[in-house]
Amino acid sequence: MGDALRPSSRPQYLSQMNLRVGRWLPVLLLCLLLLGPARAQPGGVVDSLRQRLATAPADTSRVLLLDELCWQLSNSDLKLAADYGRQGLALARQLRYRTGEMKCLTDLGNCAAYASDHTAGTRYFLQALSLAQQKPQRLDIMGFAYNGLANLNVDQQEFAEAQRNLERALALTQRTHSAADRALFGGNLANVLRQRKQFAAAEVQFRQALHLYDSLDNQLGRASCLTNMAQMASDRHQLPEARRSVLLALAASQAIGHDYYLGVNNELLGSLELRASHLPQAEARTQQALAYARRTGNAEVVANCYRTLAQIEEHRGDFRQAYNWQRRYQTAHDSVINTGKNAEIANLRVQFDTEQKESRIRELTQQGQVQQLRAERQQSRFYTLLLVLLGAAATLAAVIGLYIKLRHNRAELHEKNLALEASTRSKDRLYALIAHDLRSPVISFAGAAELMAHHLRRGAADQVQRLTEHVRQSAQTLHHLLDNLLGWAVAQTGELSCRPEPLPAATLLRECLDLYQPAAEAADVQLHLAAPEKVVLHADHNMAHLILRNLLGNALEATPRGGHVSLSATPVPHATGWVRLAVTDTGPGMAPAQLAALLAPDRQPHAPGRQRGGAGLGLLLCRAFAERHGGQFGIDSAPGQGSTAWVTLPTQQ
Fold first, then answer.
1. Inter-residue contact 638 to 582 (CB < 8 Å)
2. Helix (H) or strand (E) holding 538
3. How many structural domains comprise the chain?
């Protein structure tokens, strides 16, 4: 039931609010503290407060007296209580008395909640919350405002919003360390959890709140907690437990003379008697509840009583009287649940949220202005210091710049020297290779010329005829060497670009084989080809052709008569997308030392074991062109087992 969400610890509340009646009423304060939560003689307290009010000046003490009268009368005469509260609120605002204004707003909110005036209650509690959040914050007022808003949420069956408000209120008690507030907000949270059918969690909160109320000897809080526990037992169809709890709550309410809770508990007990089919007892309890509810102006309990009385008459079979009670219930219920009021409440919440955001923006703006002033002062000091440091920094920067530039120049000069030395060594090796490779064909030409002259003087025409083949081979060797020299020169100048295209491996190898077939037949060497038709290279045609010509020419020169040379194309194992082109001969082969010397980048121009001039530059071209394609070049050889020169090239994807 939403009625259980009323503030339940007025003396504790008074202690936090400076006891409501000012410093000049010590006798009355002592009486109030001795009376405690029981309020056994409310009339005497109210009369005493009225006497003090008659002579009180229009200052903050009068605000506190008006607010206390509003509270004391809230469970017996809501109209008069609200009048006193409004007078106190007007005076507090006139005096700019923030504490008094917050107190009057919360108590007026409670009066509105008791009267089920949700619109006014929401407005009062939101105004109190807004004031309490201003610096210096009043955490206790914030907690009571959240609690009051939760009460209104429950009346309108907005249980999720009620739970959020109560959780905020409970969080504040971690900072205020108020056991009374923790008991109040915890008990009310338990009631919301009960409404949301979360009975296990609700029971834990109820037990904790009841324990705190017992330790504080707070009968009003105990009555509230027992009422809600009875309602939860009723919801769970535990009627004996519900009856036991509501009777305990009634006893606590009677002990403190609290008409509001007497109405709530009698109405609940009447509904329990009705469920047990005890119609006379149910009617008696409900009539008592109706009298208390009318006295306190509790519209919700009045509506519930009408509904219970209608159900009683329906059980008796008096449907005319049941209809009359049901019609009264509908009218009272419609006055509590009003769509227009709900819209107005929602608008109030939106306005409050907007004001909170605007207040936060103003606060941030003010903080920004203060920070800007501080920043300007710091900026002035910074500029002064900066001017002092700029000269030294500029000098230091110039020195560092010169040092860095000098180091850079030295490093660049060193790199250029290294590059020049490497280029010089490369040219020296190249010149040595050219001299060595040109020497053989030139000597061959010279020897052939002398022999031809000798045989012509002797008239040996057949000997001259045999020398023509030797001259042809020397010319072919020289032509091959000049091709390599031209290819190397173009490659070194960067004018030779690599233009890959699809090349069937079998076709490429066949072209080279056909080119060297006459030379092979003249040397009595057999050529063999092994290449699958489906293998297609992705390589530059000229470069690939030159590589194979060099490898095949070297193989023919190294192969003795009666031997054979094989050309093959096979996929590279464990390397998808690559093909290994190989030329294998049956020549004498090479020892490991000879092979290493032949493949060394800085090798001497003569590599033992190969009989043909021009091999040195050709191998350099083979390696360079293979690397242009991202591939590799190598030679496998052993003494007496021939040699295999190979190159890897990419395939067409």
1. no
2. strand 536-539
3. 2
